[in-house]
Inverse folding.
């Protein structure tokens, strides 16, 4: 902040994993150079910086490389200390981390698996996804955002992945996954997210994204 | 802090349960160890971790903390003034520790666990080759993180040492089953020395299962048809 920091982010426009990093950098007011990657044709830069995983997002800060979205988010929070992303209280911090893991492991698994099935096989996966989203619903009770009065770590992780990625895929398939009736807190949270400039600025454009998610679902189904 | 304030639900054979136990030892925090019976889950576990129903679960003044690496960070944050810090102070070094801990759980351990379930010789050979490749990455990670000191965390055991070290007893059981040294001083000298130092640490010794006892247990839970 105020220093001449060199920050680069390698990402993909449709990926919730790099979108959430952009949200965090915007919250901290950190300027960065964004480099769009093509998964079909990975850049030599990506392969050099992330030789084991070869995945985005990759953050480069003054020549140092950080990979894995959760690791990057915590790095950003610890490097630029204003506008905290993670809760200050250790117990709240642990809950945020556990739920972030739930989103990126469990919900992502059943969520993307649900795209692969035709209507017949889908019901079980849809129910499993809803059960997991109930955990998030519970956590939102009495709060504007997961972070409390302002957006934070879990808002970025869950927000980038569910309302602004998976829900677009489900919409494309005609599945009403997270109804207002059954998930009032979740739906209230999504409405509030859409009022936050840094979130709105950092999500993929809606129509283009729905088309992209449809294509991805078709690819998964025909695999 | 009264020891009744801190409880840990776990089991002696679980490497994941070892993680918070080592961390609590390093911080000199007394705790009550609630041993789960293999094959069944207690009411307390089901109530404390209703989503995953898995151990370990730390109960601190009855508040549950789940997920072994997350519990270790919680312990470090909560008892920050007690004992050495479990993570380095520099944000980049902390990121490296967290990155490698995630790699260990998502890639390395998945491969290790698959050996005891592996079918034929071909499959077993492939698993060993993958583990040895992983060890080569970890050797380099150790050299980078330790910066000449005995542990990933420097002078003292920390988060990443715990994340990997908890698997050493299971690694030895796997080596016995494979009749092959997977962690080899010739191939990964620094990592091998680290493993020896880790196992001898006073915070680790009381909670590291004996290889023979663990091997017997493994035979029970991974019944193998005779070759």
């Amino acid at each position: 902040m105020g220093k001449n920091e060199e920050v680069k982010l390698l990402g993909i426009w449709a990926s919730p994993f790099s979108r959430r990093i952009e949200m965090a950098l915007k919250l901290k007011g950190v300027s960065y150079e964004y480099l769009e990657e093509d998964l079909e044709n990975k850049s030599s830069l990506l392969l050099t910086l992330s030789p084991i995983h070869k995945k985005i997002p990759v953050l480069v800060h003054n020549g140092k490389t950080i990979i894995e979205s959760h690791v990057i988010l915590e790095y950003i929070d610890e490097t630029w200390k204003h506008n905290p992303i993670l809760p200050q209280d250790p117990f709240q911090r642990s809950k945020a981390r556990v739920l972030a893991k739930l989103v990126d492991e469990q919900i992502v698994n059943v969520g993307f698996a649900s795209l692969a099935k035709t209507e017949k096989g889908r019901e079980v996966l849809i129910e499993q996804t809803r059960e997991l989203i109930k955990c998030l619903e519970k956590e939102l009770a009495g709060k504007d955002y997961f972070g409390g009065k302002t957006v934070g770590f879990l808002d970025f992780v869950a927000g980038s992945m569910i309302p602004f990625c998976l829900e677009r895929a489900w919409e494309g398939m005609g599945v009403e996954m997270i109804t207002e009736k059954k998930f009032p807190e979740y739906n209230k949270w999504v409405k509030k997210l859409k009022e936050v400039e840094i979130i709105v600025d950092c999500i993929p454009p809606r129509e283009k994204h729905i088309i992209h998610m449809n294509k991805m679902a078709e690819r998964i189904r025909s695999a | 802090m009264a020891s009744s304030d801190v409880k840990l639900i776990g089991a002696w054979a679980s490497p994941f349960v070892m993680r918070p136990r080592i961390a609590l030892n390093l911080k000199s925090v007394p705790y009550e160890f609630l041993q789960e019976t293999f094959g069944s889950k207690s009411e307390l576990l089901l109530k404390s971790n209703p989503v995953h129903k898995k151990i370990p679960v730390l109960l601190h003044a009855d508040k549950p903390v789940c997920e072994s690496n997350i519990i270790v960070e919680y312990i470090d944050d909560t008892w920050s003034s007690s004992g050495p810090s479990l993570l380095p102070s520099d944000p980049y070094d902390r990121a490296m520790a967290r990155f490698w801990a995630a790699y260990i759980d998502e890639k390395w351990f998945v491969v290790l666990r698959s050996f005891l379930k592996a079918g034929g010789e071909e499959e077993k050979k492939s698993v060993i080759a993958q583990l040895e490749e992983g060890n080569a990455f970890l050797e380099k990670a150790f050299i980078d993180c330790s910066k000449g000191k005995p542990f990933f965390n420097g002078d003292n055991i920390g988060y990443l040492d715990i994340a990997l070290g908890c698997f050493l007893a299971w690694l030895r059981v796997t080596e016995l089953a494979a009749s092959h040294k997977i962690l080899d001083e010739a191939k990964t000298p620094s990592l091998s020395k680290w493993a020896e130092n880790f196992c001898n640490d006073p915070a680790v010794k009381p909670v590291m299962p004996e290889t023979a006892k663990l091997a017997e247990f493994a035979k029970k839970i991974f019944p193998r048809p005779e070759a």
Observations:
- The longest strand of chain B covers residues 6-10.
- Residues 5 and 61 of chain B are 5 Å apart (CA to CA).
- The radius of gyration of chain B is 18 Å.
- Residues 91-117 of chain B form the longest helix (27 residues).
